[in-house]
Amino acid sequence: MVMKPTDSSDTTKEISCRVTRTLLMYVRENNGGSLGNLLEGLALDEAYLSDPNHWVSHAFLQILYDRMLDLLGDRNAVYKMTLASERYRSLGLLDTIVRLIGNPKLVYSQAPRYNKLLKLNGTVIIHDIGDTWVLLEDRYHDSDQKTRHDCDYTRGVIAGIPTMFGLPEADGEEIECQVNPDRYGYRIWPDKPQPGCRGCLYRVSWSHRIKPPFWIRIFRRRQYTRHAIEDLQRSNRLVQQKYDEVSRLAADLNETNQKLVEQKAQLEAQQAALITSESQYRVLADNVTDVIWILDLATLKFDYISPSVERVRGFTQEEAGAMSLEETLSPESLDHASAILAEELAQDNKAGVDPRDPRRSKSSNLTRTGHISGLRRPCHSSATPRDTPRSSWASPATSRNASRQNWLLPPAKPNIATCSSMDRICCAFTT
Fold this sequence. Notes:
Blueprint: E1 15-16, H1 17-30, H2 46-49, E2 55-56, H3 58-72, H4 77-88, H5 93-101, H6 104-109, H7 111-115, E3 122-129, E4 133-140, H8 148-160, E5 171-176, H9 181-184, E6 200-205, H10 214-287, E7 291-296, E8 301-305, H11 309-313, H12 317-321, H13 325-328, H14 331-346, E9 359-362, E10 381-384, E11 416-419, E12 424-429
Antiparallel strand pairs: 1-2, 3-4, 4-6, 5-6, 7-8, 7-12, 9-11, 10-12
């Protein structure tokens, strides 16, 4: 059977699975022991719907009702199903408690309380009661939610209560109906209640003159007591199982929480170490005589330039950082760096190519006065690793109003730049 993912709306706490359990048992009994396509494509399976501790939404129950009627070809299946719950004892402990009361009148008088064990989307109101009759109302909180199937179920409950004590079914007459006539559909009952009222009002009567022999009643009471004890024992075992399950989940949750605490402590320690390292780097970068750059290769803008750039090139830290590469590099250096970048991109993700291995190249830089800054020794460049594709390059900068003259450094003392497969480049050069 294909199951759909469970929808939280299907398990809205409106209808007890005591009702769906009865429905499943009735379908099996009247369909050759098979559920047919009753649950096909639904999110809840037979195991869930047979557990009296579970709940379903009213809308989900209506789907089961409609499918049951189609499957069995019986318009009165909901009423008959409800009467059959007395034979099935499908209400669990509730069934045993009701039987132990021993009197239909007492059961009817406690109907509002028992109703809460079967549905939470409506209430039952006792307007008046006598020894063999009762005037009760079944009222849904939302009138638009109620259907003919709900009325048939209520009729079955009302009629079936005396049968739990060996008496004939009760006679029920519906005086008022909460379902609007345009939504009710086909009516199989002879009474004609006033439609569209606040609730469904029933006048119920039963006979207590026909009673089984005294010895049968005594035997039945002992049988009901034994069943009650067995139901309580089953409930106790279920509670113990649920307790054990909750205990295991609590232990797992505690273990997971402890791991999260440890991971948080490790992360905080790493962050503290990173802050310390960055602080130390900042002190170093801001105070060395070499010029250090950090270039964002996605935008080709400078993230950082050390203050020493002003001594070397004549620009302030802010002015140098605001320059573009076209404004920064001489034409020869820009063309040369672009060629190196293309070569490095072609090597991207190739086997045997270490993306952390920097590449050095010559480049020229200009000062504020438009002259090439005098370089005295090679520089060293390094990259800051990132998880982005290799698409980067870096080299020293030129100044605004830069001279376009061609000028070459002495071969023995070139300016060095690095080409690396990172998205941030840290480049240092000296003069």
